[in-house]
Design brief:
The complex is a heterodimer of chains A (344) and B (367). Chain A has 344 residues and is an alpha+beta fold. Chain A has 8 helices and 14 strands. In chain A, a hairpin with a 5-residue loop joins strand 13 and strand 14. In chain A, helix 2 runs parallel beside helix 3. The two termini of chain A are 27 Å apart. The relative contact order of chain A is 0.17. The N terminus of chain A is likely disordered. Chain B is of the alpha/beta class and 367 residues long. Chain B is built from 17 helices and 11 strands. In chain B, strand 1, helix 3 and strand 2 form a beta-alpha-beta unit. Classes of the chains: A alpha+beta (344), B alpha/beta (367).
């Protein structure tokens, strides 16, 4: 038998879609190209940044390029509000104001733009955050995918909360406010017409009230993270890295809805890596874990909050491990780039 | 879907492991043929919970990994042509060819699209009569029926702009080739449930009888694999070598005869080169003469291809179960999913990718 092997070379000198997927490729792009260009950033990259000179104010910006514009459980308009509000909330902040910038492709039916904007307006109203400024650009056909939205938000921190991705401590309980994988599988299913979207809807929703419910726990809340792009695997890896913590979760404890599990099985995707838009991960003092769970469960968006793991008291630092269903232990890696559906 | 929970029950898994430890008196070596099974074993850590000394050998059943380099280079040469839409399943896009991969080619402007079924490619051809739509058709017996149906559908529609780059491979000739190798350590096989759902298991009976190896048709969930391993060990311990079916909920002995008829009508058996392994007689499928008009190779003359193979990568050894990914000097350093040297580090079903995703290191895998 002839045992040989292929040699492939890779000179990825151009941007790939995977550079935007929130995994290792995104990290490389930021570390090697974006951050050096804009000057040094102190501390870990958080969902939202503290406003220099204003310790209680935080700011966050995000661009929404989701396709299709409308999907079960949401649309690009409401998503653009929820995404930025949630990024502010993950620094323990209540949203004060939003800006909205539109990049519209020539040819988009005005009816669709109107529907998106009405949804965006309603979402902002439901959150209770005013849209105070914005911008609109129209680009030629082919220069954008129908509609892109950028939202920037400013928020004010709750008095006692100061969560940071670098603040996880040994012994912390790792809590999750709801099920994972709903948003990513819904959008993929809708975009590709895979037929399972009737069983599933995005979890897109604001999480700022959930964070307010945690505020009385004060400095017992060490980390809050919104596991959006890159899913739970990326969020936990970022926290483990930034806190030099050894995070361990129980596969059995992570709530994966049956429809998500089935869709991921079909496509060969890992639910831990699929995007979410309506749940948060909280690292809290073990002594406060039950209180935190009770606080989250008191609200609809946290009704299914569960404890999924802990920060170990001994290493490996910076790593995330998972206790599998059959009791073995494996490492949860930072996802690379976009997930690709498998062949069979 | 209830079946997911039922086949992932930790209590039952523990009971099966206990039973396995009670049953195995020797360090048996069992090969799971299919890459999907490899991933479940490694992701769940089942292979590390087996009785002392007992070892799973990871087989060549990753269709992405064994697709010849020349086929990939041909696909990329065709995709780079103006007016072509090249389609394939997602995990083919990152597989390295000699110079680049389809994902990078797409980023440079080629129209490369992920499809979820071969019929999607036929639909694209009908929607774009001014473009040439090519479907890169890889896979084992599992995907062959749907690909055959796509060809029939394209023929029915009279599509002159649809073609298929066929690189199908067949499992039984690969198992036979492995067993004929004097260095083969495999003492029993877990056969891939989805292949058998199409083909049944009659083809395995002469292999089991001739080589005295138990073959257990097995599913893909953790409990499927544990039960399949236990059934194989029970045969080994009692000196039996039969084909048994663990995957009774999906597989019967004769398989899906209608699907087999369709495959036989559209394709014919041919010799096939396996990436990393070499040419195996009667181990592949190609389009039957009646459907040669849909053959991409005939439709596009891309000139002479010069696939370049790497001396450092040990993918061939990994694919035949002779080596572990962690035996490779490049594993996790020069070869990662980010910069793969070989296909098993790319595909979601590749053994090297399974090891890397689960964070396996040389120390752990050989402990």
């Amino acid at each position: 038998m002839n045992i040989q092997c292929p040699i492939p070379t890779h000179e990825n000198e151009i941007v790939l879609l995977g550079h935007g997927a929130g995994g290792r490729l995104t990290g490389e792009l930021l570390d090697q190209l974006v951050l050096p260009a804009v000057g040094s950033v102190t501390g870990p990259l958080e969902d939202a940044a503290l406003l220099p000179g204003h310790p209680r104010l935080v700011m966050s910006t995000d661009s929404f390029v989701v396709s299709p514009l409308f999907f079960p459980g949401g649309d690009i308009g409401s998503l653009a509000v929820h995404g930025t509000v949630n990024d502010l909330a993950m620094r323990g902040a209540w949203p004060l104001a939003l800006s909205v910038s539109l990049i519209v492709e020539e040819g988009l039916p005005l009816a669709e733009l109107r529907a998106v904007m009405e949804s965006l307006g309603k979402a902002a109203q439901d959150v209770g955050v005013p849209v105070i400024t914005g911008d609109t650009k129209v680009v030629g056909r082919g220069a954008a995918d129908r509609l892109f939205i950028n939202t920037t938000g400013v928020g004010q921190r709750h008095e006692l909360l100061a969560p940071s991705a670098a603040s996880a401590r040994p012994g912390d309980a790792v809590l999750l406010s709801g099920s994972i994988g709903l948003h990513g599988t819904t959008v993929l299913g809708t975009r590709e017409g895979l037929g399972f979207e009737s069983d599933i809807a995005s979890d897109s929703r604001p999480l700022h009230r959930l964070v307010r419910a945690l505020a009385p726990l004060g400095d017992a809340v060490h980390v809050l993270r919104d596991p959006s792009r890159g899913g739970l695997a990326a969020a936990l890896n970022e926290i483990a890295r930034d806190s030099s913590a050894a995070v361990e979760i129980e596969e059995n404890a992570v709530p994966v809805p049956e429809a998500v599990a089935s869709a991921c099985d079909l496509l060969g995707l890992d639910p831990l890596v699929v995007a979410n838009e309506g749940c948060l991960v909280a690292f809290v003092d073990a002594d406060s874990a039950e209180s935190a769970l009770a606080a989250m469960r008191s609200l609809p968006e946290g009704a299914r909050a569960v404890r999924i793991g802990e920060v170990l008291r001994e290493g490996p630092w910076g790593r995330v491990t998972l206790r599998t269903l059959v009791g073995a232990r494996r490492i949860v890696e930072m996802p690379l780039g976009e997930q690709l559906p498998r062949i069979c | 879907m209830k079946y997911l929970d039922e086949y992932r029950d930790p209590v039952l898994a523990g009971q099966l492991l206990d039973e396995l430890r009670r049953t195995a008196t020797r360090p048996w070596r069992i090969m799971e043929v299919c890459g999907g099974q490899t991933h479940t074993l490694v992701r769940q850590g089942i292979d590390e919970l087996l009785p002392a000394g007992m070892r799973m050998i990871h087989g060549p059943g990753c269709p992405v990994c064994v697709t010849p380099l020349e086929t990939l280079d041909r696909a990329m040469a065709v995709a780079a042509r103006p007016g072509v839409i090249l389609t394939s399943f997602g995990d083919m896009l990152r597989v390295p060819g000699s110079d680049t991969d389809l994902l990078s080619l797409r980023a440079r402007g080629a129209d490369v699209r992920v499809v979820y079924a071969p019929m999607d490619a036929v639909r694209l051809a009908a929607e774009h009569p001014d473009r040439e739509v090519v479907f890169l058709a890889v896979g084992f017996e599992t995907t062959a029926p749907a690909n055959a149906m796509a060809v029939l559908h394209a023929a029915r529609l009279g599509l002159a702009n649809f073609s298929m780059l066929v690189s199908h491979v067949l499992v039984p000739p690969a198992m036979t080739a492995l067993l004929d190798d004097p260095d083969c350590e495999v003492q029993a096989f877990l056969a891939a449930g989805h292949v058998c759902a199409v083909m049944g298991w009659r083809e395995y009976e002469p292999i089991a009888a001739r080589h005295h190896v138990p073959v257990v048709v097995t599913g893909f969930e953790p409990l499927d694999l544990l039960e399949g391993i236990l059934m194989a060990v029970r045969q080994l311990e009692s000196g039996r070598y039969q084909v048994e079916n663990q995957y009774v909920r999906a597989v019967r002995r004769a398989g899906n005869t209608a699907a087999q008829d369709t495959v036989r009508h559209v394709f014919r058996v041919t010799d096939r080169a396996w990436r990393g392994i070499g040419e195996l007689p009667d181990s592949g499928l190609e389009l039957a003469e009646e459907y040669r008009e849909f053959d991409t190779i005939r439709r596009f003359d891309v000139g002479g291809l010069c696939p370049v193979e790497d001396a450092e990568c040990i993918a061939g050894g990994v694919l035949t179960g002779a080596r572990l990914p962690t035996d490779c000097a490049a594993y996790g350093t020069r070869c990662t999913p980010r910069h793969p040297l070989g296909a098993p580090m790319v595909s979601s079903e590749g053994t090297c990718a399974a090891f890397h995703t689960a964070g396996r290191t040389p120390r752990r895998s050989t402990a």
